[in-house]
Amino acid sequence: MFSLKSKIILITGGAGLLGSRMVKIIQKQGGIPIIFDNDQKKINELKKKNEKTINTVYCYKVDITKKNQIKKTVNSISKKFKKIDCLINNAGFNPKLGSKKNRFENFSLKQWEKEIEIGLTGSLLVTQEVVKKMIKQNNGNIINISSDLGVIAPNQFLYEKNDKKPISYSVVKHGIIGFSKYLATYLAEHNIRSNVLCPGGISNNQPKKFVKKIKKLIPLQRMAKINDYDGIILYLCSDYSSYMTGSTIICDGGRSTW
């Protein structure tokens, strides 16, 4: 049941930190990962890492805010593989910290629109095109990646005075949960499921001062390791989760319980 053999799994933001890990676990279980990413450098790095793997990784440079690009690429994938089993909406905008521009009172409309466009509109546009194929199949699986900050507010005391988590991040991550629940009910008649994963922060060479502070907010007293989400991703992609839809899975070391 945990086998992903021959499953076609499309991952947006698939060349990033968490996305590339998803590629690895999907390949290991026999699935075929299809990558959408707008960063050619990261795509090239991902291809290089997977040169010797049994299952090929199919990478497409796609701007998920461009409807025509998405439509053309999804149609190409559907024609090649005859199906799309699963979509993982993983792409998002990770804002740079350390700027007064991130403070709520200074946050620009231009930046707000950019981050909403990538984090929410991008998920909408990709899902619309993929769902058209899934409805014809009368089967499908959508996994939406939110964050522990999709269920709690960011603790701004973690950051320096001019180093705040911007309002757009919270809005996007909370919005993804609502987006996923809507899809779960709307698409149920077509045997298409939709669930959300809310991961905690992954350890990735953050400043020692920040790590020391955030550990105190997490009952397990550590940030996530990159492989901590392997089992959940595998479960959600596999047939073992066939009766799960509309659910929100929080895996954050217990942070959101406090």
Explain this structure.
The structure is a single chain. The longest helix is centred in the middle third of the chain and has 29 residues. With 258 residues, the protein is of the alpha/beta class. Strands 3-2-1-4-5-6-7 form a 7-stranded parallel β-sheet, with helices on both faces. 40% of the residues lie in helices and 14% in strands. The protein has a single domain, classed as 3-Layer(aba) Sandwich (Rossmann fold), CATH 3.40.50. Helix 1 links the parallel strand 1 and strand 2. The mean pLDDT is 94. Helix 4 packs parallel to helix 5. It contains 7 helices and 7 strands, in the order βαβαβαβαβαβααβ.
**CATH top level assignment:** Alpha Beta
Q: Give the total of domains.
A: 1
CATH architecture field: 3-Layer(aba) Sandwich
CATH topology grouping: Rossmann fold
Main-sheet strand order equals 3-2-1-4-5-6-7
Which structural category do the helix and sheet elements fall into? alpha/beta
**Topology as H/E string?**
EHEHEHEHEHEHHE
Count of strand segments: 7
Based on CA atoms alone, the radius of gyration comes out at: 18 Å
